[in-house]
Amino acid sequence: MQSISRRRFIQQSGVAAGISIAAQHADSAAHKIPQVDPHEITRLRTQLKGQLVALGDSDYEQARRVFYWNPRTEQKPLVVVQCGHEDDAARAVEFARTHALEVAVRSGGHSHLAWSSSSGVVIDLSPLKEMTIDPKQRTVRAQAGVFSGEVARAAGPFGLAPVLGQCPGVSATGVTLGGGLGWLAGLHGAGCDNLVSARLVTADAVAREVNEQTDSELFWGLRGAGANFGVTTSFTANLHEIDTILGGEVHYSPRDARAVLQGFREIMYSAPDAFQATLNLTPGERGLFFSFCHAGSEAEAGQMLQSIRSIAKPTKEAVRRQSFAQLAEKAAATTSGKGPAPAFREVQTVRRDRITDEVIEVIVDQLAQATPDVVMGLSHYMHGKVCRISPEATAFPHRQAHSVYLRMAHNWSDPQSSEQRFAWSEQWRELLRPQENEAIYANYQTYDTKVGSPSLFAQNYARLMKLKQQHDPDNFFHRNANIAPPKA
Ligand SMILES: Cc1cc2nc3c(=O)[nH]c(=O)nc-3n(C[C@H](O)[C@H](O)[C@H](O)COP(=O)(O)OP(=O)(O)OC[C@H]3O[C@@H](n4cnc5c(N)ncnc54)[C@H](O)[C@@H]3O)c2cc1C
Questions:
Q1: Which of 137, 201, 285, 445 has its CA 20 to 30 A from that of 422?
Q2: Strand locations in 22-120, DSSP E?
């Protein structure tokens, strides 16, 4: 693996047909705010059941900001429509269409490339918080603003658990539309495998219920490429019976990074379906921490814990038998929650087919050079049920056993250091991204490959192109892991 120059990176990620990531950066840098007659904005405001925030309003700065905010992802939307009802999403789609404005859809605001902000209209669904648990059917119906952690908390008292991601603050809808890899993937597949139905406002501003019965092809596309077809205002998903789980964190010293990485690889290689883990590595006080969830028998859980403890000398431990909701509500490693939020955040993610010795050596080396705010991670080691489901069964194709996601998140507050920060994170990515068979998971896209969109959807790409052509031929919904023509 070799690092490549910044110039070559820029050439590789050059403008594809459709809207490329590079083009999005260029747009945001220019911050050209489109001109629309203020009366039209006032008219939209009066049509809404929720709120409209426009440039100049006192809450504009807060309304435009999302989680991974930095000088490259920053956007200045003309209006943010904070939906009070699904009808507001339809009105916002009409408004954006009439005035030829770029549209972004937001639920939890956790997109890695800040796709949920735009230069034109932001359709912000985060105020839509209704949720119903049906314990008989073992399903949840949730509006788009409901977070993953909130579903786990509501389902818990019924002895049920949702199949969502590991971050409580990510929208349950947002994570499911892109795939949805979490603690229960080995037992119950991805979030998208558990989707039953979704309410969708399409590019023609019409709302419809999409499921296997009403439109099986569109339903297939929603499960993994979902942001491409419209605004999902609510969804129904399966829940699963989960008794208490054994979970928590075992910490180690950064000095033991190599042994811990090797141990993580060994444990995950033969992990039972009921087990999932994430290894986080920080150069600072928090050290390395092996976070895990075991949702099986107590005997097997005890054996797994023993294996985790034996890979290096633990420096501290916070492991206990607990409800699934208690674990699912724990803040993600990259959201420390202490002190004021940093001004800027960025993340890089790459997918690897295997944790090779070379990958381990690069991570050990990079950790030694990292600033204290850096959190690297290995997560969503693919095994169990999620890999036994056919890659063509849903639009989410990346189900290869033993593949894994590598992540590097960092934050800073001094704008002067931004370019240096980006240079460091890009070299981290270039050192670790694979030279061949490069694949990108829609929920974790942080860069573009040489071929572009086919890397996101693999064998499902051609079928998705057809579906996109049918439902959104103008690529109106493009601030997402986009179904676009391949790069030349
Ligand atoms: C700290 C952190 C931890 C994470 N952990 C996991 C994890 O464990 N597993 C995993 O699979 N992913 C994980 N992710 C990735 C996350 O699932 C994706 O970023 C997801 O797209 C976020 O959804 P959101 O609604 O919160 O974000 P947003 O920024 O609001 O949206 C993200 C994308 O989805 C589109 N979108 C959002 N809502 C809708 C909607 N209702 N209708 C149509 N399109 C919509 C947006 O337009 C945008 O393109 C994590 C992200 C973060 C920041």
A1: 285
A2: 51-54, 79-82, 103-106
| Domains detected in the chain | 6-10+17-124 (3.30.43.10), 131-241 (3.30.465.10), 245-444 (3.40.462.20)
Structure tokens that stand for 336 in this block: 């420390």
pLDDT, tens digit (0-9, with 9 covering 90-100), for 21-42: 333 433 444 567 778 999 999 9
**All residues at 6 or more sequence positions from 174 whose CB lies less than 8 Å from its CB, including other chains:** 107, 108, 110, 111, 144, 443
- How many Å lie between the centroid of ligand 1 and the Cα of residue 108? 6
Summarize the confidence of residues 284-303 as an average pLDDT.
95
What are the E-state strand segments in 270-414? 275-281, 288-294, 316-322, 344-352, 375-379, 404-412
Give the pLDDT confidence of 321-333 residue by residue, as tens digits. Answer: 999 999 999 877 7
145 lines ligand 1 (CB under 6 A): no
Rounding to the nearest 10 degrees, give the CA dihedral for residues 83, 87, 88, 91: 160
Q: Is 177 in the pocket of ligand 1 (CB under 6 A)?
A: yes
| Cβ count within 10 A of residue 262 | 15
Rounded Cα–Cα distance for residues 282 and 85 (Å): 42
Say whether pLDDT at 348 is over 80: yes
- Residue owning tokens 């092996």: 290
